Amino acid sequence: MTDTLLSVRNLRVVYPGDDGDFHAVRDVSFTLGRERLGIVGESGSGKSTTGRAIMGLVAPPGRITADEMRLGDLDLTRMNEAGFRKLRGKRIAMVLQDPKYSLDPVMTVGDQIAETHRQHVNAGRKAARLAALEMLEAVQIRDPERVYGLYPHQVSGGMGQRVMIAMMLIAGPDILIADEPTSALDVTVQTQVLAIMDNLVRSRGMGLILVSHNLHLVSSFCDRVLVMYAGRVVETCAAGDLANARHPYTRGLLAALPELGHRRAELPQLQRDPAWLEGSL
To answer: What are 197-236's pLDDT values in tens digits?
Structure first.
């Protein structure tokens, strides 16, 4: 893979607890180019925490350490909060699961997109408004002028997610991290939102990290897949080869998926092996 945008080596996220430290992310390593990378695993496997660590969004008392975490020419391991604020949106952005909890309820969605533009680009109010309207159109919102003046509670889940994508991409970041961006949407709207993200990422030559528990979605949408278990990456493969995964954890996840037209009395349960905590096989 050429043109590496992000390089992560031995990323660790630790939270202190009454019974000792809890290791939420354990020695995770990967690179990201101008591609679509999926991160999958059960709830609690460390997928979202990995994305938040890259964004510098792990709150104290959580601790982030890594042997290497570079965004292009920038060393993220040496970055303070002020430095991350300058990066977020401009170089790397994150779309969260539910826009209701990410958008400011007392600002119109258009003003929020325009404000993001003004924070990262030396532009006046009029130019920022025009840029926001163009971005709303780019995410296939039919009446950008009308939607610009709506408040978050006035938009549907699918439209709210499009607004979030517009807000995260308006400053032209190199990387987009999408954390379960379609889990709260119905299947038809999921497909539309993914198609919008795919078109924008490809046309802008960006890198995309898609965090999801939906193996079918990731295998059909992404180029590569990381499979996480208990904070570790246990397997990495091409998305098209996910059905032929070798690790027993990945095979167990695939076996537990229901299939249309294939009736089973009950889905198999995933049998865990303590050896998986030591890393991939």
So the answer is: 888 888 999 999 999 988 988 999 999 999 999 999 999 9
Task: Please give the single-letter amino acid code of residue 241.
Answer: D
Q: Is 111 exposed, middle or buried (0-12, 13-18, 19+ CB in 10 A)?
A: middle
Structure token pair of residue 66: 């890594």
Q: Rounded CA gap, 130 and 32, in Å?
A: 32
Q: How many Å apart are CA 238 and CA 38, to the nearest integer? A: 10
pLDDT attached to residue 109? 96
Q: Read off the pLDDT of residues 242-274 as tens digits, 9 standing for 90 and up.
A: 989 999 999 999 888 777 777 777 777 888 888
Among candidates 89, 111, 116, 246, which has minimal Cα distance to 174? 89
Are 64 and 81 in contact by the 8 Å Cβ rule? The answer is no
SS3 annotation, the chain: CCCCCEEEEEEEEEECCCCCCEEEEEEEEEEECCCEEEEECCCCCCHHHHHHHHHCCCCCCCEEECCEEEECCEEHHHCCHHHHHHHECCCEEEECCCHHHCCCCCCCHHHHHHHHHHHHCCCCHHHHHHHHHHHHHHCCCCCHHHHHCCCHHHCCHHHHHHHHHHHHHCCCCCEEEEECCCCCCCHHHHHHHHHHHHHHHHHHCCEEEEEECCHHHHHHHCCEEEEEECCEEEEEEEHHHHHHCCCHHHHHHHHCCCECCECCCCCCCCCCCHHHHHCCC
| 181 φψ region: left (φ > 0), alpha (ψ -120 to 50), beta (else) | alpha
Judge contact between 178 and 95, C-beta under 8 A. yes
pLDDT of residue 99: 74
